[in-house]
Amino acid sequence: MALSQPGMRITADHLNSISGDWTSYTPTLTNTTIGNGSLQARYQVARDRVLVGFTLNWGSSTSGNMPVLSLPVLPASLGGMRWSGVLMLSRGTGTWRSGFMYLADSASTVNTYALYGSSGEVTSSLSTAGITMTTGGWIAGQIEYEIP
């Protein structure tokens, strides 16, 4: 459906029907133990797309590797479609690193990966990527995907 057609009046109701409000949600987190850290996640549904954003703040008792997060709305099953998103992380000191988020067709979780090595390889293991997270560090990302 086109957002507008010749002669169509764009109204607030029309715009609201294609762009949803941001909603907080609490994802199930695996591969990482939050401890005294924190996790914020929000999503927005707009027509047949969902945009998800999250920030995991590292505390002194947070441990583990790159997080795997549950989704607020399951993706469409499209016979092998895959989606990717962007990610940044700060160890708490030093430089920032970039990474990726990956969602497979009809999966219920999104996986995150850090970049490492000169060839731009990705890994879900912080130690393989040479990253030691400290208090005040964070991992933040966003991904957009299609829903039924």
Largest sheet: 10 strands, antiparallel
The shape is globular
- Could you state the order of secondary-structure elements as H and E? HEEEEEEEEEE
Overall strand count: 10
Strand content: over 45%
Determine the N-to-C terminus distance.
15 Å
Number of helices: 1
Kindly provide the radius of gyration, computed on alpha-carbon positions and rounded to a whole number of angstroms.
18 Å
**Global mean pLDDT:** 88
Structural class: mainly beta
Describe this structure in words.
This protein is mostly beta strands and 148 residues long. Helix content is 5%, strand content 49%. Strands 1, 2, 3, 4, 5, 6, 7, 8, 9 and 10 form a 10-stranded antiparallel sheet that branches. The radius of gyration is 18 Å and the shape is globular. The mean pLDDT is 88.
Question: What's the topology here?
Answer:
Blueprint (H helix, E strand, L loop, with lengths): L11 H7 L3 E3 L4 E5 L4 E9 L2 E9 L5 E8 L11 E9 L5 E9 L4 E8 L4 E3 L14 E9 L2
Antiparallel strand pairs: 1-3, 2-5, 3-4, 4-10, 5-8, 6-7, 6-10, 7-8, 8-9
Short précis:
The protein contains one helix and ten strands, in the order αββββββββββ. With about 150 residues, the protein is mainly β. The longest helix is centred in the first third of the chain and has 7 residues, at about 10-20.
Essential attributes:
globular; ten-stranded antiparallel sheet; 1 helix; mainly beta; 148 residues
